[in-house]
Here is the input.
Amino acid sequence: MLGEYPIKGRGAAEISASVERAVATGELEPGQLLPPMRELAERLGVNPNTVAAAYRVLRDRGVIETHGRRGSRVRSRPATSGRESIRVEVPEGVRDVAGGNPDLALLPPLAPAFAEAAAQGDRQPVLYGDEEVEPELARLAREDLAADGVPKGPLAVTNGSLDAIERVLAAHLKPGDTVAVEDPGWGSVLDLVPALGLRVQPVGVDDDGPLPDEVRAALEAGARALIVTCRAQNPTGAAVGATRARALRAVLRAHPDTVLIEDDHGHRIVDLPLHPLAGTTRHWAVVRSVAKAYGPDLRLAVLTGDEVTLDRVRGRQRLGPGWVSRVTQRAVVRLWSDGAVDPRAVAAAYGRRRDALIGALAERGTTGRGRSGMNVWIPVPDETGAVARLLHAGWAVAPGARFRLKSPPGVRVTVSTLTEADIGPLADAIASAVGPVPGRRGV
Here is the structure.
């Protein structure tokens, strides 16, 4: 059952560490069945309750999953081996269109904003016990949220979108609960959910976002939370439109206890309007990061939501990091106030590149998806072969396995660095690598 790897330990912590170490090194493989608790307890000479506690820790950490009488297995994608490891090494001379990074030319300079924020910090030092959120940042963020129809709620600042999503999930859910997630979807979320000991329920996505019937089925099956990307969905570029938003609100109204999380990471890089679902359920949250528009290293996101959710998030935050640096918050205020980024110009730049690639692919009989943001999703019949052939042709694309659970194979192309001269050669290479692929529902 376990090959040559012996699980060791006398206490629950030692046993769980032994298993986790083996998963991290590959000695225990995804999907591998672990011994029944009583059998392992007898082998180790410990009480079965000790093994049960170890397995519970492993489940809560997202390393294994338990299925009652069918036993416990290493997760197909354990938390110890994140999806970021599913990447292509880019040899010298190969163009990297896999990274998911913004165009550096569209990012503003940070030095002036941080210099002014630091000078303000010298004049008005932030001390223990001061407000966690910069007042001017809160004011500007609330104005933006209100303009987009997001219900009024308390505000918090987190270290990026993923930090906010993790805190909201932890505020409401317990290990073993199920979270409905987009499929294909953001690989980091697909890793985070099981790492918190939560179960994943995939929901199909088309150009307008999550499919209402699949969301309904997930919630009726017991999913306690739903994570939706409002715009610039990664990897498909989907954006929730007005009609889809109405359909999703109708589904959510029938399940008012659902914890709804909306990730609007595309704020300030897209020109499509926001159609928020927030307020449809008792507990909701909307998160907006500055990474795509102002630079990934800023690590700052604004989070709003209902009173209970934000109270729990802020309370737990105070016991951990305390707050996100007010120097960073003040720098973001300066970037916002100075108009350092023109959202329409940024959206137009990404839109031109995205539309040009999708159009060129269509001319060659190949399907590409990308309604918003900086990525194009291309369905393929053979993901591994397509990635390899494109690499041989001089293009490194992101394997779809980083973003998929049950949805069909595909590859993701980040268009942010593409020039007009790149479009034809890249489209030729993709068409040659994947061949004509008809559009598919849910991708």
